[in-house]
Recover the amino acids of this structure.
């Protein structure tokens, strides 16, 4: 019978029951989505990556022909190994649009056991003279099975047929890096590239648990190979067991984790507040139950059963929702990162866990409230005659000093009457505002970074050559170009810096350019830009500063290029979204390292530089290159460079704004629920106000005013929180997305501020409007008799 | 002959549920003259509060008409009804029902602000006079929770008088008070009636009903008798 009471109590106030269930659904849905997508994404990205059996170390040598591969594989440290050639070329993806081609020569497609690729369509094993192309490349090209794209290898152009599309989840997505990955057999590889086979050995190791283990064993193996006369020219150690774009997934998981946590907190707060309100309205009934012999335990059971019923109802809705949204998000991310969702069905334990959370969480969250509510004595319970007296009644004397209308004073005091609930509502809403605003600010930081790039690099197209050649040889192919205002030639290469206090074997890119160039105007963080002078001067970007452990400005460094050294004075530090770079004056560089004045970079400035004209110029440059014997590394327009960076960040940018918007929506729903509870608790008060002459419009305005007060306070607090949060987020996302050395300056987004402001006010208005509307729909006599 | 300030004609009020229909008032007709001091009595469930809700327009009759000062209030919409009520009828509840987040002064001012018939410039002075009248001027700036039950009920009476209504309606105003405090509240109602207000009080306390000029006794939703005591 007592459980019949439970059931009928739920139906007595269906609106309130709905609110509790709705709050629970929100909480469980948020947590469930995070749980499901976390489960799928972390498992599947890793499974996708691991099932390719990625190489843990890559050795380069010109003498692998002398290697007895089986003997090498039999070494106790080696799990397995294969020869896999690799070289970088260019491929035409649309007419006169070329992008880098990563070409792999596979030893034996039948026995491929390291860095595997999987068949998608067409041939599993490419016929002789043909290629397999990685599937993500289809999204950035018109290449498909049966097509014969043009490939530029050094100075020559070939046409190679694509005989199949394969899937290589171990590579960075082609869509983001603007690369095409292609695979062919060793013989075809050699025919296409003209390069010798067997230059690269990819190895999986036994008993390695981290990058340090890999490095230790790699050193042993390199020494053993050296001892056998196979000189190792270089060793590559990829990140241990980590997909190249794991950082994106980490960022996204962090984002959805935050959202899930917020949804959970919101749900938790709502449920406990609602249960408090439910218990307040049940005081007299509790007294009656106790008066007729019910023990505290029995009464407690009734309310626990109520929560179980509501939890179950919420679970029935929230669990499938969580699975659906978790799956949808996982597919979205998998599409962006080019991996397959392998989890088709979730284990029963996931469903059971979510259902258990639906039932147990509300009990857990409301335990103390139920305990307190059911502990009330019969005398106390039966003398309760309303809920309106049970509020903090403070004067807030400062209000008297202000010349405010009584309605406004009433709205302010009502907003403050349940300070705990108000604090929670404002905190939740402020957090939503802060995250939403921070989302815009981080986005602004990234935009600033991108627009900074445009301002810093004031050229339109860059042609990078594989090897330095004479300026005349390089320029002769581009004389007939129409839309060219100016061409500069630079040179560069890899160099090392050694100082008196530090020594490193890590190299950095050297860019030698005219010191008075107008085409590169990098932001100077410290010191100044290079200038003409008798002594050798260098400017480092911040990434290079980090590599060389922040040498002091003005200190003299030893710059080594090839086998030549020069003492160079560090005169400035630049801020850049780039890898480690050392900038030197072209004349000084040529004098010491480049006596033949060779060049390897051509910088074009277009006369008409709107986007379409620049792309047209780039196509013209490509056409000229196709007639030349130039060995081109890449041709890139500034617009494309920005686009590539943008594409890398886009998924994060979109997610930040979308998810932060969701936080705000959840916060607004939280606020609506809190206003709903406020109104429910004050139903009798509404009746009294109507009885003393308040029109429905006035009561409606009063509640909307209360909502607006909460919204304004939330905006103020939210924006205050967003200030430090934006700074932290800029550092966090900068590190996460752009690497440890990258700089992401925190920024203030005015449009973001205005949108946040408008959306919060709108949500606040809606969140109070809906419950306020329901408040005035209650007839006066019912409001007066409401318990 | 004076026109009645309040006239109820053939009032029937039914409460319908799926299972049954309960008739709380059965064809009740009642006429109240201006300045009358009237008690509505009856046992619990006799229809007293329902009748009061009909008089104040808080609820609407199933059949019949309610006229106050010649206005048929059934024809007014919710907004007009609220405004009309604030202007013409002051209501005093059993449990005082003061707004807990406003001071006593502000509670009275709020009623004036809602109805907007007392000029703004006169409101503060009027509040002082009303609180003086009910004897709680010294508590004007206190919150309701700081006052005793009797003092809260005095405040509620002051609020009921805020817009100078002709009719004061009180629903068991002393039901939650001790006898001494109840007497002092009753004396306020009595003096209000003497000053020309029409005072209608619902009570189930037969002894206190003897102080009224007329007693309307309800039984099972019908007027059992109307007993003019003078």
């Amino acid at each position: 019978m007592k459980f019949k009471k439970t059931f009928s109590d739920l139906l007595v106030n269906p609106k309130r029951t709905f609110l509790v269930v709705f709050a629970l659904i929100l909480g469980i849905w948020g947590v469930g989505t995070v749980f499901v997508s976390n489960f799928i994404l972390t498992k599947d990205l890793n499974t996708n990556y691991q099932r390719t059996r990625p190489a843990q170390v890559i050795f380069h040598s010109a003498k692998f022909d002398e290697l007895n591969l089986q003997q090498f594989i039999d070494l106790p440290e080696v799990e397995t190994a294969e020869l896999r050639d690799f070289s970088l070329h260019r491929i035409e993806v649309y007419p006169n649009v070329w992008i880098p081609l990563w070409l792999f020569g596979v030893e034996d497609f039948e026995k491929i056991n390291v860095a595997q690729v999987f068949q998608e369509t067409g041939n599993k094993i490419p016929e002789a003279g043909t290629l397999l192309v990685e599937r993500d490349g289809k999204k950035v090209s018109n290449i498909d099975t049966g097509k014969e794209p043009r490939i530029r290898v050094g100075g020559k152009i070939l046409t190679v047929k694509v005989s199949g599309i394969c899937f290589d989840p171990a590579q960075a997505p082609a869509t983001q890096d603007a690369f095409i990955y292609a695979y062919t057999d060793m013989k075809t590889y050699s025919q296409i590239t003209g390069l010798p086979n067997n230059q690269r050995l990819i190895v999986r190791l036994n008993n390695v648990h981290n990058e340090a283990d890999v490095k230790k064993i790699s050193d042993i193996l390199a020494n053993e190979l050296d001892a056998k006369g196979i000189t190792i020219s270089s060793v590559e150690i990829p990140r241990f067991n980590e997909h190249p774009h794991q950082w994106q997934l980490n960022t996204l998981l962090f984002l959805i984790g935050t959202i899930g946590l917020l949804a959970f907190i919101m749900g938790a707060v709502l449920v406990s507040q609602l249960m408090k309100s439910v218990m307040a309205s049940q005081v007299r009934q509790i007294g009656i139950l106790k008066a007729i012999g019910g023990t505290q335990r029995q009464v407690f059971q009734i309310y626990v059963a109520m929560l179980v019923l509501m939890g179950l109802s919420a679970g029935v809705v929230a669990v499938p929702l969580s699975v659906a949204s978790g799956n949808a998000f996982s597919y979205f991310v998998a599409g962006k990162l080019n991996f397959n969702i392998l989890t088709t069905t979730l284990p029963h334990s996931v469903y059971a866990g979510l259902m258990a959370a639906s039932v147990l969480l509300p009990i857990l969250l409301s335990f103390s409230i139920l305990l307190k509510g059911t502990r009330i004595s019969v005398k106390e319970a039966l003398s309760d005659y309303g809920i309106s007296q049970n509020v903090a009644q403070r004067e807030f004397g400062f209000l008297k000093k202000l010349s405010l209308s009584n309605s406004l004073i009433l709205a302010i005091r009502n907003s403050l009457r349940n300070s705990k609930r108000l604090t929670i509502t404002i905190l939740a809403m402020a957090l939503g505002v802060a995250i939403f605003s921070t989302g815009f600010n981080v986005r602004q930081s990234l935009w600033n970074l991108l627009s900074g790039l445009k301002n810093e690099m004031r050229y339109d197209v860059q042609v990078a050559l594989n090897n330095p050649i004479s300026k005349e040889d390089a320029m002769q192919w581009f004389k007939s170009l129409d839309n060219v205002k100016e061409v500069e030639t630079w040179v560069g290469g890899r160099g090392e810096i050694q100082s008196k206090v530090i020594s490193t074997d890590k190299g950095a890119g050297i860019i030698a350019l005219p010191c008075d160039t107008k085409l590169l105007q990098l932001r100077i963080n410290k010191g100044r830009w290079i200038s003409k002078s008798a002594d050798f001067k260098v400017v480092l970007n911040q990434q290079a500063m980090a590599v060389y452990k922040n040498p002091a400005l003005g200190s003299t460094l030893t710059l080594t290029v090839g086998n030549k050294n020069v003492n160079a004075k560090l005169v400035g530090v630049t801020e850049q979204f780039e890898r480690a770079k050392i900038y030197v004056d072209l004349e000084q560089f040529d004098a010491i390292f480049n006596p033949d004045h060779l060049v390897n970079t051509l910088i074009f400035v277009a006369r008409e530089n709107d986007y379409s004209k620049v792309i047209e110029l780039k196509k013209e440059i490509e056409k000229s290159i196709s007639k030349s014997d130039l060995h081109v590394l890449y041709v890139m327009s500034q617009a494309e460079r920005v686009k590539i960076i943008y594409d890398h960040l886009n998924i994060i940018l979109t997610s930040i704004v979308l998810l932060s918007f969701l936080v705000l929506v959840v916060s607004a729903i939280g606020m609506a629920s809190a206003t709903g509870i406020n109104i429910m608790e004050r139903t009798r008060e509404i009746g009294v106000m109507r009885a003393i002459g308040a029109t429905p419009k006035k009561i409606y305005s009063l509640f909307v005013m209360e909502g607006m007060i909460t919204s304004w306070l939330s905006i103020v607090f939210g924006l205050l929180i967003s200030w430090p949060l934006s700074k932290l987020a800029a550092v966090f996302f900068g590190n996460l997305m752009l690497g440890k050395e990258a700089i992401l300056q925190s920024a203030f987004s005015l449009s973001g501020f205005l949108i946040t402001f408008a959306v919060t006010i709108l949500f606040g208005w809606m969140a109070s409007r809906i419950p306020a509307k329901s408040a005035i729909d209650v007839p006066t006599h019912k409001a007066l008799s409401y318990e | 002959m004076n026109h009645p300030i309040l006239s109820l004609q053939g009032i029937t009020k039914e409460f319908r549920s799926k299972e049954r229909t309960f008739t709380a008032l059965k064809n009740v007709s009642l006429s109240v003259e201006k300045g009358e001091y009237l008690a509505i009595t009856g046992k619990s469930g006799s229809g007293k509060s329902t009748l009061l809700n009909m008089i104040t327009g808080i609820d609407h009759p199933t059949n019949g008409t309610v006229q106050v000062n010649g206005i048929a209030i059934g024809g007014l919409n919710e907004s007009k009804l609220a405004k009309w009520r604030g202007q013409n009828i002051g209501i005093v509840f059993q449990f005082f029902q003061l707004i807990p987040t406003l001071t006593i002064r502000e509670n009275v001012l709020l009623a004036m602000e809602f109805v907007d018939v007392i000029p703004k410039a006169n409101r503060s002075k009027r509040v002082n006079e009303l609180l003086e009248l009910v004897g709680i001027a010294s508590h004007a700036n206190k919150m309701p929770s700081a006052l005793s039950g009797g003092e809260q009920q005095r405040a509620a009476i002051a609020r009921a008088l805020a817009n100078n209504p002709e009719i004061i309606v009180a629903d068991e105003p002393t039901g939650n008070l001790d006898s001494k405090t109840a007497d002092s509240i009753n004396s306020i109602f009595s003096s209000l009636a003497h000053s020309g207000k029409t005072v209608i009080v619902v009570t189930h306390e037969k002894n206190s009903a003897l102080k009224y000029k007329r007693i309307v006794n309800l039984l099972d939703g019908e007027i059992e008798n109307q007993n003019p005591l003078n």
Notes: Chain A is about 55% helix and 20% strand. The longest strand of chain A covers residues 78-94. Chain A has four domains: 1-49+246-385, 57-236, 394-455+639-787, 461-608.
